[in-house]
Known about the structure:
The chain is α/β, with parallel strands linked by helices. It has 2 domains: about 1-220, P-loop containing nucleotide triphosphate hydrolases (Rossmann fold), CATH 3.40.50; about 225-348, Magnesium chelatase subunit I, C-Terminal domain (Helicase, Ruva Protein, domain 3, Orthogonal Bundle), CATH 1.10.8.80. The protein has 14 helices and 11 strands. It has a 5-stranded parallel sheet with strand order 2-5-8-1-9. Strands 3-4 form a two-stranded antiparallel sheet. Helix 1 crosses helix 2 (about 35-45), helix 2 crosses helix 10 and helix 9 (about 225-240) crosses helix 10. The chain starts with a helix and ends with a helix.
Amino acid sequence: xxxxxxxxxxxxEARDGLQEALxxxxxxxxxxxxxxxxxxxxxxxxxxxxxxGVPGLAKTLTVKTLAxxxxxxxxRIQFTPDLVPADLVGTRVWRPDTGTFDTxxxxxxxxxxxxxxxxxxxxxxxxxxxxxxxxQQVTIGGTTYNVPLPFIVLATQNxxxxxxxxxxxxxxxxxxxxxxxxxxxxxGEEAAxxxxxxxxxxxxxxxxxxxxxxRHSQVARTVIVDRDVIGYAVALADATRHPANYGLGDxxxxxxxxxxxxxxxxxxxxxRTLALLRGRGHVEPQDIRDLAPDLLRHRIVLSYDALSExxxxxxxxxxxxxxxxxxxxxxxxxxxxxxxxxxxMRTA
Length: 348
């Protein structure tokens, strides 16, 4: 077997395993197919996710089901204003009977961590969590403890309440790979949800182990990314910083700060995993385009004019995706014209 054939076999095995896991999760979660796909992409790309949606959209159930199907440990933290960093990462406890300090690790030491309503905790607690997300380790009493890998934080925030909340600073939100907007289900999907509530919940089985996830994550890194595709991801991020250079001068005043370099870096990494899920060994521009809103919406800081006019980051990204040309579009157009010309010459 050649190296190419071996690589194709590994990618096929990874795709089949991940698709089986998705199918098992969908036995519990109705609809939200895009969100489930994005969660798997973030997990394999070693990223974290910020879920935003009104209460009751199965965000907590989704994370619990994901952990059950993928065989990892799960923990949930309900963020409240009275939390302190030690409630997350752990602390040292004095034992009078032994005359020594023992270290008790906090709930962040799990593979799947649900940070529920993260915007209800004060800034120092948010910073402690974001530091663990970035460093994947915690230092307590001079000793460093690594979190178990894979490690993913899925933070939720409620967009309908602002009283008693502490909004995440823009610079810290940038540490999340994706921000996923969870919307209401369709009428048919909601009817299915109500129907399932009348019977015992489905019992899901473990489809993948943590070792499988680590192996599939390595396989995703073998997916080929063309230089033009990288340029497309960078151009999308650059268009959020200098929209006038892409014929979008009318929205320049609506963006205070554009996406940081973490945007295109994460976009390409996530696109490799998405291409693997879609059964390909290379990234296509469509993969970048599909993921761009989820990876860039929280990296755009809107100006006061945009906020006062009710303009959203998604509306600006829609304009940007239309203005920035996908790689290969001009080449395909030239090929089509060449085919037409050749056909006309043959007819003549």
